[in-house]
Amino acid sequence: MPDMDTQQASLNWPRIRFDFCGIQVLVTGGTSGIGLAIATAFVEAGACVTITGTRKSPQDYDNDLRGFHYRQLNLTDLDSVERLGKSLRELDVLVNNAGATYGSDAFEKELLVNLTSVHRLTCACEATLKRSQFPGGASVINIASMMSFFGSPYFPGYGAAKAGIVQMTKTFTALWAAEGVRVNAVAAGSIATPMTDMYVKNDEISQSVISKTPMGRWGTPKDIAGAVMLLCSPAAAFVCGHTLVADGGYSIID
Ligand SMILES: NC(=O)c1ccc[n+]([C@@H]2O[C@H](COP(=O)([O-])OP(=O)(O)OC[C@H]3O[C@@H](n4cnc5c(N)ncnc54)[C@H](OP(=O)(O)O)[C@@H]3O)[C@@H](O)[C@H]2O)c1
After folding, report:
1. Local structure of 27: helix, strand or coil
2. How far apart are CA 132 and CA 94, in angstroms?
């Protein structure tokens, strides 16, 4: 059994290499955290990657985003979401990653940002995705959450949206699988990102996450990027409508 240091070290040197040479990828919310890790992994695998963020320009971020094409996008503006999707001439992989929590009094806004906008963007990309020639099919990946499955008193809209993401993943599969577009989701456990930074830095909360996670650590954005790459690769050519849980075992503990 490898110790934790060995496990961590191996995360930095993955033995599996994916080949996405020449394909077009769109990652919403690619400016930080999970989205940035996914976008980086696709670039390293040879893809041409467009990311979105809410700010005007990629220079407005501290992270180095020079390896990506950049489009400004606010998911609260559904018309601009649709315009962005329709403006793409080629697309092989759509990663609906962007998301946010706003609190218990923001039910509709959490639904809009985390679910309705995902539906709008995915529909806007339909024709382009169906033209993809990528072996194993084009892919849509939706980022789900433990809150897809568990109740939370703090973010009711976010939880409803993330549960809806799992269902919508199945619905798009029923609609599009026969035409070569695979739609899957990755349900992320507790991942250390700007979104969770205040919890990672709070010893009591952080320790409770670690002790409830069988793997005994917070996840990294790369943990989620790996799951996304696997689902988009030709190795997963017969996998569709699936939500892959990447949570270090968190959800199997009662
Ligand atoms: N971290 C976790 O533990 C965890 C667990 C389960 C699921 N998730 C999901 O994983 C995804 C990424 O989260 P993260 O932890 O990587 O968070 P993050 O570092 O805060 O990144 C969020 C990304 O979404 C973008 N975004 C936020 N609000 C937006 C809006 N209204 N319109 C357009 N883009 C918006 C942000 O853009 P700006 O940088 O411009 O603000 C940023 O690129 C989210 O869907 C989240 O729900 C995260």
Report:
1. strand
2. 12
Q: Does the global pTM surpass 0.70? A: yes
- What integer pLDDT is reported at residue 8 of this predicted model? 52
**Which of 27, 40, 54, 81 has the most ligand 1 atoms within 8 A of CB, as the residue to mutate?**
54
Using a 6 Å cutoff on CB, does residue 219 contact ligand 1? no
pLDDT at 1: 46
7: number of Cβ within 10 Å: 13
Ligand 1: distance of its center to the CA of 34 in Å? Answer: 7
Position 184 pLDDT exceeds 70: yes
Q: How many CA atoms lie within 13 A of 118 on its CB side?
A: 33
Ligand 1 geometric centre to CA of 3 (Å):
31
Who's near 225: CB < 8 A, 6+ residues apart? 34, 37, 38, 40, 41
Domains of the chain: 20-99+111-247 (3.40.50.720)
Among 95, 167, 170, which residue's Cα sits nearest to residue 129?
95
Helix boundaries (H) for 88-141: 107-111, 117-124, 126-130
C-alpha–C-alpha distance, residues 234 and 133, integer Å: 12
Calpha distance 199→196 (Å, rounded) = 5
Residues 48-54: contacts with CB under 8 Å, at least 24 apart: 48/22, 48/23, 48/24, 49/25, 50/24, 50/25, 50/26, 50/88, 51/26, 51/27, 52/26, 52/27, 52/28, 52/84, 52/98, 53/29
Annotated catalytic, 158? yes
